[in-house]
Design a protein that fits this description.
The protein is built from 1 helix and 34 strands. By secondary structure, the protein is an all-beta fold.
Length: about 475
């Protein structure tokens, strides 16, 4: 299904979400400007900051190891629903998507970074776990949905950043769980669902950003109804996409259980298989990060890989979580780097208490989503040669990324937001929350932002930035 909406006034009659706050905004162009605010320099428009997925915001200069301890709460909002996806920010607008566990389903909120008030909201009538993306130049927000029933299709919608007006919507014959990517006029959506009993044909769908028309469609497995998945964040540079792939439902194929590079027309540049000839659930479930000619990712087999971005050849790999074939407990977090250390969540480890903890990735089987009885998780830092520098143990499992400024990493560990010294992993600052944390944090010049599993959204700032 595809439909385009010419004006935001259609929103109310179609029942697709909340109407815009003012009728005067209805006829504004798609790229309508965003009014300047005291936070106009804030920009974290996509998962892990940019399309390289490095997670580092170079515009933040006021947070250092000596000032980060002065961070304090500036405001807090309770959105009354779980939050799994990470927020994104541009020019005073913070887009937050609730998970949709209430009867209303997921809601897309545009919150003011100044004080947390709602600028607009859009009701999705579904569920959502993926991080949205903002295109500042086009003035658009892109959000994907995760169906309430797994056999149902997911969809992706384009909203106007100015007022939340619906611009277009597309249905997909697969699950959407990964962050969306917008680049050079194209929206790229990872399709997943390569496990029994669904076995939908996963891969990448490319849509025209402005009109929503399908440009091309690439599949992990060319055979219909044999699965294959793209679960995590896609990296992009110079017209080339690189992303992780999951298992198929039937016979293994070379493009599954590893990483693939495509050009912007959907043709394969190279493919790499981390677990060859595997019938097991040995996905690359997280995002792929690009840095200085290499790409980095962790597999469910517990190994962390560095590949040549141009050829796909393995530069090095480090075993972070020893596992047995078919019993994968490695991570599906996304690595980030400040150029000195790479940080990544490395999966589940057996603890000292009894209990199976359930299967590795049944995200809907427990609340909080990523806490399993009898297991703990670890956040690890590596140098650029693959040597582990330090490890932090936590109860919840990191499923996103660590947000970075030079020398400092921000993450949700257990029931706290923490700032870690990237040299040794020690805590420089922390703030306790009432629930566990799945959403990754965002760091911009106006402050540090995060959300917990209970639906609370937080804004922190150092003393010089408090208002």
């Amino acid at each position: 299904m595809f439909f385009a909406v010419a004006g935001a006034s259609s929103l109310a009659t179609a029942g697709c979400g909340a109407p815009p706050p003012a009728a005067a905004n209805v006829d504004l162009p798609i790229g309508g400007g965003i009014a300047a605010t005291s936070s106009s320099t804030d920009s974290w428009p996509t998962f892990a900051f940019d399309n390289l997925r490095q997670g580092l915001n170079p515009a933040v200069t006021n947070l250092t190891p000596s000032t980060v301890s002065t961070l304090s709460l500036r405001w807090q909002r309770d959105l009354n629903d779980a939050i799994f996806s990470s927020p994104v920010i541009y020019a005073g607008n913070m887009i937050v998507v609730t998970q949709g566990l209430t009867p209303a389903g997921s809601i897309v909120y545009d919150l003011s970074t100044a004080d947390g008030h709602t600028i607009w909201k859009y009701v999705m009538h579904s569920r959502a776990k993926m991080t949205p993306a903002i295109d500042p130049d086009a003035g658009m927000v892109f959000v994907g949905t995760d169906p309430r029933v797994r056999q149902d299709p997911s969809s992706v919608v384009a909203l106007r950043l100015l007022d939340g007006g619906l611009l277009w919507s597309q249905s997909l014959d697969a699950i959407v769980r990964g962050p969306l990517l917008v680049a050079d006029g194209t929206l790229y959506v990872g399709r997943a669902g390569g496990d029994e009993p669904v076995c939908s044909q996963g891969g990448i769908s490319a849509f025209d950003e402005i009109g929503g028309d399908l440009k091309w469609r690439w599949s992990v497995d060319p055979n219909p109804k044999e699965g294959g998945s793209v679960w995590g964040a896609i990296s992009y540079q110079g017209g080339h996409l690189i992303f992780g792939t999951g298992n198929t439902c039937q016979s293994p194929v070379p493009t599954a259980n590893g990483a693939v590079a495509l050009d912007q027309n959907g043709s394969v540049d190279w493919n790499m298989t981390a677990v060859k000839h595997s019938y097991d659930d040995a996905d690359t479930g997280g995002g792929v990060m690009r840095f200085q000619g290499r790409v980095y990712f962790i597999s469910k087999n517990g190994d962390f890989y560095a590949l040549n971005a141009a050829t796909g050849q393995t530069a090095w790999r480090t075993e972070l979580n020893p596992t047995l074939p078919g019993q994968w407990q490695g991570g599906f977090a996304s690595p980030t780097t400040d150029g000195t250390a790479i940080v990544v969540g490395s999966g589940l480890y057996a603890g000292s208490t009894p209990g199976s903890g359930g299967e590795f990735c049944l995200l809907d089987s427990a609340k909080p989503d990523e806490v399993f009885a009898g297991y703990h998780s670890e956040l690890k830092a590596l140098n650029l040669s693959g040597t582990v520098l330090w490890t932090r143990t936590m109860q919840n499992r990191l499923v996103g990324y660590v947000a970075l400024v030079p020398g400092i990493g921000f993450a949700g560990l257990n029931k706290s937001f923490v700032a870690l010294d990237l040299r040794d992993g020690k805590t420089l600052w922390s703030y306790a929350t009432p629930d566990y944390i799945n959403a990754s944090m965002v760091v911009v010049p106006s402050g540090v932002y995060g959300a917990d599993e209970g639906g609370n959204v937080y804004a922190f700032a150092i003393a010089s930035r408090r208002r």
